[in-house]
Amino acid sequence: MRRLQSTEAVIAVVLILAMVLIGLVNPAFWGVGNLFSLAKSNVIIGIMALGVLLVMISGGIDVSFPAIAAAALYITVRTMVTLDYDGVLLPFMAACVIGVGLGAFNAFIIDRFKMIPLIVTLGTASIVRGLVLGLLGTSIVNINKMPHGLIAFGSQDIAAATASNGANVGLTAMVLVYGAIALVIHFVLRHTMTGRSVYAYGGDPEAARRAGVNTRRTIYFVYCTAGLLAGFAGLLHSSMIWQANPRDFVGLELDVIAAVVLGGASIFGGRGSVLGTMIGVFTLVMVKNSLILMKVDTTWQRVVVGAIIILATAITAWRDRKKLA
Amino acid sequence: MSENLIELKNISKRFGGVRALDSVSMNIRPGEIHCLAGENGSGKSTIIKVMSGVYTPEEGQILISGEPVSKLDPIKAVQNGIQVIWQDFSLFGNLTVAENLALNTYILEGRGRMDWARARKMAREVLARLDVELDIDADVETLPTSGKQIVAIARAILAEARLIIMDEPTTALTRHEVDALFAIVRDLQAQGIAVLFVSHKMREMLEISDRLTVFRNGKKVAEGQMSEFDEPAITRAMTGLELEEQPYVANISADTAPVLEVKNLCVPGIVEGVDLELRPGEIVGISGLIGSGRTELARALFGMENARADTFRIGGRDIFPRSVQEAIGLGIAYVPEDRLSEGLFLTQSIERNMVVSIMDRLRKGLFLDRKAMRSKTEDMFATMQIAAPSADTAVGNLSGGNAQRVMLGRWLLTGAKILILNGPTVGVDVGSKAKIHKIIRDLAHKEGLAVVMISDDVPELTGNCNRIHVMHGGRFVAHFEGQAMSEDQINDSLKALK
Amino acid sequence: MTAKAENKPFFRRLLGEDASIIQLGVITLAIFVLMSAMNPDKFLRYYNFESITYVMPELGILSIAMMVAMLTGGIDLSIVGIANLAAITAGIYFRHPAVAEAIAAGGAGVVLHTIMGVLIALTVGLSAGLLNGILISRLRIIPILATLGTGQVFAGLALVLTGGPAIVGFPQTWNWLGTGKLLGIAAPFWVLIVVAAIVAILLRRTHLGVNLMLIGTNARAAVFAGIRSSRMILYSYALTGVMAAIAGILLSGRTNSAKADFGASYLLQAVLIAVLGGTNPAGGKGKVLGVLLALVALMFLSSGMQMMRTSNFMIDAVWGGFLVLVIAINYLRSRK
């Protein structure tokens, strides 16, 4: 536990240094408008990252969550449009159910056929994306057709301020949703036996079995929760950008996995924390968003994300090697 | 009321065509320290799994506190106070000591919430009961082996164990730690908990146990109070043979030049200055506890450690191997301790396993010379008398003895002059053991190989070596040769180490 | 009779040694029959098979590359990024005014510059592969994360180089590599055959191939046996990178364009084909023949489905379903 905390401290220090540096290059970084938009950009990636965190602690990896999120949001919104339904609670529940269902499919294959999660979730991603695009089509549901309830839900602010250029900027209320989910996941991981079983299983699956951990339940819990968070985040994203695009989130798995690894979770399982993941997400989002502020062409974004993954993992590998010596 | 905590009556267990247990009966009384001895493959791990409910026997009866138990499963076993401490401890390295201790209890109680405060309190209490100090907030992976073992024992106690079964508990411990473990075990006994030691280390069994059961080939061959046995008697029971190997007499004249001369070899923090001289035809034994630096010494000779030495001369040439490849090139071979994880490629053929270290040399242009590969393998296959359908058989299908012969064959093919064997017959059954010893002795005697044999098994050393070094704390602390080289003397010397 | 007697041990050996190859052959045949039956007029036409031989090679080479990475228990998630980056770099070379002029002038210069372009693409692939290899074998980053990261970097660089839109206008000789014919057979198909043959020989007959197999079986034992593991792993990723670059050349030659996000679905398909072809993703087992059979099976499947006017998205879904099915079959078979 103590080492985890120190890992978190290290990332936090890196984060603060990066913030100071970016602020020096362009003071506009500290503008309230920029900070609010930064906070907003954290919400969706952050919620998905919490799901991936669970999977990584259990020793697995999930690359199907972007497809699950896209499926959940698109199926839900299209159904709403067809039925002319305009609620909020029921659609979110539907998106969550879709996510859980697809997560359960991942869990089933992984548990039943003992295949490595990377390959299983690659397959799931392909099936889900293909079916959604093939059966429901590729047309984007635009703002004029988007259900108003969802848009209203996603547009709520909790704070407003006037930016330096005189524009009114708001802090989205969705950060509260993100915060609440993070608190719940933290509580589950830290203070429930289900959460501790995930750590135990990720640390040593065989020992977990011997200790009486219901490993099948653990696997289902992990992948279903990851699916649930993905489904929820998908619809939330849709309500925040006022459109439903079935091709959304392509390639997002890389960003999210990068953020979780950056946040100190081990891909070998057994290690990782909610706080670390949130800091990792914040760092990644901030660096990506600030490239524009730092007058770097946006085409460099992917190179930077790639470099961050390589750097973060190289440092982890180096640290673990030192421990072995 | 029965006086037995657990009683097994005529238990039989079969795997495929192999009878792992053949109508075996044994019993354990409350609060006794019982030892179960036997060679590998004698059925002792099978009987542990029967007692802990992992295996269901085909025949026989299990009675716990005199009551017959039908279909003992792992949960029933735990409920009846039977706890097994496996060799790998089954702990969670990524979790703290306190959590490791509380986890089982919480799962057993079917709790939903992780109560950290209670976990730490439980941990503190149980460690106090064992009278040991451990940081309960440390991650278990940061503890030494002895610490992990204590956590495993504490966990068993928390599960209200009435019988704790320990599978080879002393293998990875230093003598000092073994003493500490024995103190804890006596303490457990005082609290009325029975302990079943499963071990092949006779000296330790004699020291601690009240009663002894010996298995051989799935059958019980001896049973009784410890006082009725002495070491030779136990060995006889375990092996079924009178092991009276004549000490090996090296076939060397005094003026033979040494093939290896090492002075003041150091591996920082582990090996603290070792002088070693080897002549062709010699078999030099190294005895010492785990942690004495014996494995690191072997690895240093094989180019695997960041070592230094004042002199390192091979065949009269001053040269220090810096990598495994260099060491092999210099004619050094190393058969590691753990054959399965460090030695063999189980799913690959005997041929590939044998030629792996000489593949660089078996080339025809860009390609491997398959004819040469095959003929070399066939030769060695015959020399080593490997029992297998063909050289294409996967090594994973071979018995321990045959697999070890594949390892030896691999190194002979490299043209090794110096053969370092670490635990050459670990996990090899009795019959094969003698055959492997003969092969090694022949290699030294007839082929003029210089052999270093590292072993826990003192009779193995006295029976095969012409001289023996005892290693401790990274140094050679005693040296025996010729008539002085008796088992008792070496054991006394090992026992004196602290 | 005598001939039969001689054949029998051979078949038995084939069956005994490699049940998975037989199983694959059966699957391939079944798909072939099924697709022929469902598209009675179109599937069995020469044109269909010809067009398959143009589309198949790039994916086939990527799949073989993936299999090589999996031999040591690794994976290469950057192959598509490498393929695109290699093609784009060559494309930029061709756009250089001096080069473009020489190409426009025609004559031997075109061939020369095409060869130069191929060499540039291969060098990019080699360098990218070496980078992966160094990260994995020297810095000990686990392959999933290392190649996930480098894949982003390669795709990102491709984006930086092109600024987004596709590069078009490759020389004709370059496009011949993707669309031409040699001795009546598609040029890219020849490339696939050559690459497959080289890798097959490499794996069975050379020091490198056998060592990779052994490392994948037991990495620790490989160290004790004196195998230069990290060098071998480095070579394997370099080889993977070069193969990815070849696939990139074929793809850009076939479409006469190169773009940063081409062939995104190839990554999954390459993993699928490698696993379907009997490669063990945990290492130590993999055969070129198996990969080729799996490739052919899936090519039949998608071309047949295209004839039935199934959307490409649905074909993606079917491939994903196929992967899951193969996982299930392999598991059930291994338990027997």
TrEMBL record, chain A:
The chain crosses the membrane at residues 9-29, 35-56, 87-109, 116-136, 169-189, 219-237, 249-268, 300-318. This is ABC transporter permease. Its main location: membrane. The keyword Membrane applies. Coiled coil: none annotated. InterPro entries: ABC_transp_permease (IPR001851). Keywords: Cell inner membrane, Cell membrane, Membrane, Transmembrane, Transmembrane helix, Transport. GO terms for cellular component: plasma membrane. It is a multi-pass membrane protein. It is found in: Cell membrane. The keyword Cell membrane applies. It holds the Pfam family BPD_transp_2. GO terms for molecular function: transmembrane transporter activity. It comes from Phyllobacterium salinisoli.
Automatic annotation (TrEMBL), chain B:
The keyword Nucleotide-binding applies. It is a peripheral membrane protein. InterPro entries: AAA+_ATPase (IPR003593), ABC_carbohydrate_import_ATPase (IPR050107), ABC_transporter-like_ATP-bd (IPR003439), ABC_transporter-like_CS (IPR017871), P-loop_NTPase (IPR027417). SUPFAM superfamilies: P-loop containing nucleoside triphosphate hydrolases. It is found in: Cell membrane. It comes from the Bacteria. Residues 6-242, 254-498 form the ABC transporter domain. GO terms for cellular component: plasma membrane. Keywords: ATP-binding, Cell membrane, Membrane, Nucleotide-binding, Repeat, Sugar transport, Translocase, Transport. It holds the Pfam family ABC_tran. CDD domains: ABC_Carb_Monos_I (cd03216), ABC_Carb_Monos_II (cd03215). One of its GO terms (molecular function) is ATP binding. PROSITE patterns: ABC_TRANSPORTER_1, ABC_TRANSPORTER_2. The keyword Transport applies. Belongs to the ABC transporter superfamily. This is Sugar ABC transporter ATP-binding protein. It comes from Phyllobacterium salinisoli.
UniProtKB/TrEMBL annotation, chain C:
GO terms for cellular component: plasma membrane. One of its GO terms (molecular function) is transmembrane transporter activity. The keyword Mitochondrion does not apply. The keyword Disulfide bond does not apply. It holds the Pfam family BPD_transp_2. It is a multi-pass membrane protein. Keywords: Cell inner membrane, Cell membrane, Membrane, Transmembrane, Transmembrane helix, Transport. The chain crosses the membrane at residues 21-39, 51-70, 77-96, 102-129, 141-162, 182-203, 232-251, 263-281, 288-307, 313-332. InterPro entries: ABC_transp_permease. It comes from the Bacteria. It is found in: Cell membrane. This is ABC transporter permease. It comes from Phyllobacterium salinisoli.
